[in-house]
Amino acid sequence: MRTGTALMRVEALTDTTLRVRIAPSGSLPENASWAVPAAVRAQSVAVVPTPDGFNTNALAVHVDPATLRLTVTDRTGRPIVADAPRPLTLDGAAFTLRKALRPDEHIFALGDKTGGSLDRRGRTFVNWNTDAYAFDSTTDPIYKAIPFFLGVDDAGRSYGLLFDNTWRSWFDFGHRDVDTLAMGSPGGPIDYYILAGPAVRDVVRGYTALTGHAPLPPLWAFGYQQSRYSYMSAAEVRDIAGKLASSGIPTDAMWLDIDFLDRNRPFTVNRQTYPDLKGLAGELGRQGIKLVTIADLHIASAPGEDYAPYDSGTAIDAFVHAADGKPFVGKVWPGPSVFPDFTDKRVRAWWGRNFRGYVDAGVAGFWNDMNEPSVFNDLHTMPVDAIHHIDADDFAPRSASHAELHNVYGMENTRATYEGMQALRPGERPFVMTRASYAGGQRYAVTWTGDNSSTWDHLRLAVNQMLNLGLSGFSYAGTDVGGYAGGASPALMTRWYQIAAFGPIFRAHAEKGSPRAEPWVDGPEHLAIRRRFVEERYRLLPYIYALADANTRNGDPLMRPVFYDYPEMIASPCKRGIDFTLGRSLLVAPAPKGESEQPYEICLPKGGWYDYWSGLPVTANPPPTGEAATLPGANLADRVTETPRIDRMPVFVRAGTILPRQAVVTSTARTPTGPLRLDVYPGADCSGMLYLDDGHTTAATRGRVLRQSIRCEQVPGGGLRILFNAREQGYRPWWRQIAVTVHGAAGAARVTRGRSPVASSFDAAARTVAFTLADAGLERPTTIALVTGGMQ
Domain of 191: which CATH number? Predict the structure, then answer.
């Protein structure tokens, strides 16, 4: 549609996903994107034209031909997205878009942006990847630019918007004008996508379908990981690994920061302190521990010094140029450095080849840090007039300024590392961690929240950052456990371990000069608590790994805000702390002020919950009375009161959960002993999932997996049926038996498998019925019947 010289093009990629492009001059820019792959942008569905737009099966699109004002509704006419009265203003190459912001609209996502709460409403944010050492809840911008947000109203109805502009864009969520959502950029295309829910889950699934699902990491990535800036020698690494083992801390990875390098130069090794990297990796490997090394992107500018990455990169003109046409040189850890031009596919391939020495030495994963990019100058990065070369994907080959490519630089760095690992280890799953990224960066790397601080505020902030990252496509996110800068008190460190045990990535990391932060440093009492939570993490790996498998297929984050699966909670007047869910079945409710011993209230969605630690049904507080009972949403949740204790963190299991667990192992390289455990918590919509593969190859993408859904049904008058559905079995399980514990039992049960009796036991105090099944035959549809005096 045109008005004057301006052109607006609205396309329906799916029935619920629209792409909107506006060309003020009347000519659309090239159809290209770093965030959305070409095959996705080429999708389309049939639409029905209307006088002012078109309809899909789910949406109605209306455009005012005089102003190009856009309104999107569902087919009943309920507004989803509507432009404000002045939808677009221009100032040279800069532009501002305005949309209406409803009174009950909450804003989420935007990656790891900070803030005092999970909700972004009422704040302004800038997208400019920034090295933000020791940031706080008011710092903006920080490490990532993910210009995607979700709007959610009090009824739980949601939409999403991806503003696909790589320049220094910005969002204003009702800060200057309480009724207006504004966004803009100093340059680049006006190109955005609208994702209509109606549920938050639908939006996140649509966004990850648009920008790409995260690939399944290797199984070891879900174990406990130990790091420090820096372990100064191989001898220190061996010592730490030995102490982890003697302290009984299951461990899957140890990380090496820049001091393992020769003069901080990437793709080198300090042979004085790390004389045999291959031998170290092999020694750790025999203990079940993987080695991960840092791979900063700055290459030392070292002409004539026989530094192979500089020489080979110079030979192919691999580095970003300054405005004068010479390679840009900026000071970073190695001193004067040059920067690879990752938007050129030739350079990405060259970068990937540089990892061969590390791969041959047995290094299992790589850590791309400082890739905002960080430069030690007054700008803290490259000047915006630095010159990159684009030759990738469906972009036309051309030169481009750093102002345009700054925000995708870190993502393309991780892409180069990821693709390099694919080339050097074909058939193996790469593991790459990044600090900086852009929308769609989850296709190449996991992430963490950067250089945080050892404070209670930062622990609360970390939870909100990881939740918003999950809503932004980055399901695999972590935080430096204990805080990177400062030094945590014993209680703070222990609380951080407890929360991280239920998060996606579990890595402890701290800077040099700070107090030691390994799990044993605060004495045996705190070590025992931290060990118990690390062990619980390993028991839960079958559940966590099944969530990861689901994420690769539908984009659901592992760590979720409670309203993700329980949308009614968005309108609950319960005080919001830092509670979250792991999947939909486990609700984790840390003390909102961990430094306080005051009791606090936990709000549980209606439907029934069990205490994770005792296995007993939860008894809620009496419902609110008086004025509290008249508040909107007063009865949307059940409330329980918890008094903080350092040895306990409340965790609850949804009634209707079948939870798989395993025996504790010292690392995922070890096979669990004994049976697989299934804990059944009867309730509505009772289900669970088993998932298993070899843990490290890409064979899972070719069907070499074990995947099986399990359901349970309560029988009127007492009893339960557990139904094993047909198993997708391209991979043989490690277990030979499955030990089942049914919670909430009122008495002993008679258990049968088909027509055959199964021996069972009843624990009156725990209110459980337990029995063990041979796994043979369970790959076929099987019904287990329990006849009891009743279930909770």
Answer: 2.60.40.1760
- Parallel, antiparallel, or unpaired: how do β-strands 506-508 and 224-226 relate? parallel
Instruction: Look up tokens 């207006």; give the residue.
Output: 180
Q: What is the CATH number of the domain that holds 635?
A: 2.60.40.1180
Whether the CB-CB separation of 112 and 204 falls below 8 Å is answered with no
Residues in the chain, total:
792
For residue 352, what are the CA distances in angstroms to 37, 292, 530?
21, 16, 38
CA distance 558 to 435: 19
Catalytic residues: 369, 372, 451
- What's the pTM? 0.97
CA distance linking residue 415 with residue 343, whole number of Å: 10
Residue whose tokens read 């036991």? 761
Judge if 531 and 433 occupy the same domain: yes
DSSP 628: G
Q: Phi, psi (5° rounding) for residue 342?
A: -70, -10
Listed in sequence order, the residues at least 6 apart from 556 whose beta carbon sits closer than 8 Å to its beta carbon are 201, 204, 205, 475, 547, 550, 564
3-state secondary structure at position 559: strand
In the listed set 537, 554, 571, which residue is the last one of a domain according to the structure? 554
Angle between helix axes 541-554 and 524-539 (nearest 10 degrees) is: 50
CB 750 within 8 A of CB 786: yes
Q: How far is CA 329 from CA 299, 745, 769, in A?
A: 10, 69, 68
Return the closest-CA partner of residue 592 out of 573, 606, 578. Answer: 578
Taking only the tens place, the pLDDT of each residue in 707-745 is 999 999 999 888 999 999 999 999 999 999 999 999 999
**Radius of gyration for the chain, computed over Cα atoms and rounded to the nearest angstrom:** 27
State pLDDT tens for residues 346-391.
Answer: 999 999 999 999 999 999 999 999 999 999 999 999 999 999 999 9
Question: Do the domain assignments include residue 329?
Answer: no
Quick one: tokens of 642? 């918890």
First CA to last CA distance, the chain: 60
Q: Give me 161's structure tokens.
A: 């918007």
418: burial class by Cβ within 10 Å (0-12, 13-18, 19+)?
buried
Q: Which two tokens stand for residue 752?
A: 């049968």
d(CA 768, CA 744): 6
φ, ψ (nearest 5 deg) of residue 266: -55, 150
